[in-house]
Design brief:
The model has no long low-confidence stretch (mean pLDDT 92). Helix content is 4%, strand content 39%. It is globular, with a radius of gyration of 19 Å. It has two helices and 18 strands. Strand 6 and strand 7 form a beta hairpin. It is mostly beta strands. Strands 4-5-6-7-18-17-13-14 form an eight-stranded antiparallel beta sheet, with no helix packed on it. A four-stranded antiparallel beta sheet has the order 11-12-16-15, with no helix packed on it.
Length: 276
């Protein structure tokens, strides 16, 4: 079972939690704190950067109810099995992928829809989502006068896949000494082999009774080596050192000529390293 929570007291990130018996989760409001209250923090599966997102609410897995993995791949392609997160405040969707390393869930978060310009028609304010028996994605929205301004309104929006996604990041996974980035479509191998087309940084935040938290120990990562798969659908990136408990932030330049590369950013939470 997985659940989201928002940045707050003791929560320096928005987060995706893998819920386990006996563990404590959740935003602790300052009005609820008591003298000596120091709850042991449970590390989220994914630290979701704030204010890149401000309020990730409902989520769902991209799979077809009652059907297997093959049906999910047919419906959702490279995103099959990933999670959709409803980002209320910026009125968009995020996507998350998970993997297990030594029994620990960890993974990455990516933009799924673009943050709209003020004049763009977009979602009112995503708060819930679900996949229908035929593979459509339904998004429940609201706009509340007390938070986000405007009238008290709501809507349900149906999203249906039409064709393949644009070239972009499909998934980031950890590997011994670095990461693998898989793409939604084959990319330009010459561009992808150039380390200058990748910007990687890492940082952490510390859980405190105060609201949120600043980045700590942030550094720009140097890239030792980039290896491009023969089919152009993934790259391996080697780094000099990996730091457990840190978020790794990836920004990629256009790796395909003449196309819009989206998503071009990812945020991977490294809880455990893979051994070589």
């Amino acid at each position: 079972m997985f659940a989201t929570d928002n940045q707050g007291n003791y929560n320096p990130f928005n987060e995706l939690n893998h819920l386990q018996p006996g563990k404590r989760y959740g935003f602790i409001n300052s009005l609820e704190t008591k003298h000596g209250l120091k709850p042991a923090p449970t590390a989220p599966a994914i630290d979701i950067p704030h204010p890149w997102t401000r309020s990730v609410n409902g989520l769902c897995f991209l799979h077809v109810p009652g059907e297997g993995e093959a049906a999910a791949r047919e419906r959702f392609g490279a995103f099959a099995g990933h999670l959709v997160g409803c980002e209320y405040d910026t009125r968009r969707l995020v996507r998350m992928s998970l993997e297990q390393v030594d029994g620990q869930y960890q993974g990455a978060v990516y933009p799924m829809s673009r943050e709209p310009a003020p004049s763009d028609e977009t979602l009112e304010g995503p708060v819930s989502c679900a996949v229908s028996p035929v593979g459509d994605l339904y998004i429940g929205n609201l706009r509340d006068s007390g938070w986000g301004a405007g009238s008290n309104t709501g809507s349900i929006v149906r999203l249906r896949r039409q064709g393949d996604p644009p070239p972009g990041i499909a998934e980031v996974r950890t590997r011994p000494g670095g990461f693998t980035i898989a793409f939604t479509q084959p990319i330009d191998r010459s561009r992808a082999s150039d380390a200058a087309n990748y910007a990687v940084s890492s940082y952490r935040r510390i859980s405190t009774p105060a609201y949120g938290g600043e980045d700590v120990d942030r550094r720009i990562e140097s890239i030792k080596l980039v290896r491009v798969a023969d089919d152009g659908r993934s790259v391996d990136i080697d780094l000099p050192e990996l730091r457990e408990g840190f978020v790794y932030e990836f920004h990629l330049r256009e790796l395909t000529p003449g196309d819009t590369f989206f998503p071009a950013e990812a945020y991977y939470t490294l809880r455990k390293q893979r051994s070589g």
